[in-house]
Amino acid sequence: MRFVVKSVVGEENFVDMTPNKSNNYCCGGGGGFLQSGYPEARRAYGKLKDEQIRSTGATYCITPCHNCHAQVHDLSEHFGGGYHTLHLWTLICLSLGVLGENERAYLGPDLAEIGL
Q1: Is residue 73 included in any domain, yes or no?
Q2: CA distance 36 to 2
Q3: What SS3 state is found at 80?
Q4: Residue 87 in 3-state DSSP?
Q5: What distance in Å separates the CA atoms of residue 103 and residue 91, rounded to the nearest whole number?
Q6: Could you give the CA distance from residue 54 to residue 80 in angstroms, rounded to a whole number?
Q7: Using the 8-state DSSP alphabet, how is residue 99 labeled?
Q8: Range(s) of the domain holding residue 98
Q9: Per the structure, how many domains does the chain have?
Q10: Residue 114 lies in a domain
Q11: Are 84 and 60 in contact (CB under 8 A)?
């Protein structure tokens, strides 16, 4: 995933989390927990991930799967993180110039009009 993201955004725009790779923190939304009906517990488990994302200073957090995307997006809104959450495929499509107007809901104003 790092190779793909760096290729799409440019290595100079890539900010990795610490810790990362196999030592990275889980967002807390996987394994069905996102749909469990316990949003406060889910957010409590995800608070560490929110803090980890914020500490990067990045404007966007790229997520590989639907559960991570929904959880990280919710964490940013709930805890006031201020970062945008993107599916990896959204970023790839944007870089290729094939992202449709109706697929830009999670882009910030700096990227929302690119390629239209």
Answers
A1: yes
A2: 30
A3: coil
A4: strand
A5: 11
A6: 10
A7: -
A8: 2-103
A9: 1
A10: no
A11: yes
Q: Return the pLDDT at 1.
A: 87
82 part of a folded domain: yes
Residues forming a β-bridge with 87: 63
**CB neighbours of residue 47 within 10 Å:** 13
- Answer yes or no: is 27 within a domain: yes
Q: What is the DSSP string of 10-73?
A: -GGG----SS-GGGPPP-S-TTTGGGSS-HHHHHHHHHHHHHHHHHHT-SEEEESSHHHHHHHH
Enter the tokens of residue 82. Answer: 């201020």
The tokens for 88 are 């990896």
**What pLDDT is stored for residue 23 in this prediction?**
96
In one-letter notation, the amino acid at residue 37 is G
pTM score, whole prediction: 0.91
pLDDT (tens digit, 9 = 90+) per residue, 59-100?
999 998 889 999 999 999 999 999 999 999 999 999 999 999
Cis omega before residue 64 (within 30°)?
A: no
With 80 as the cut, is the pLDDT of residue 32 above it? no
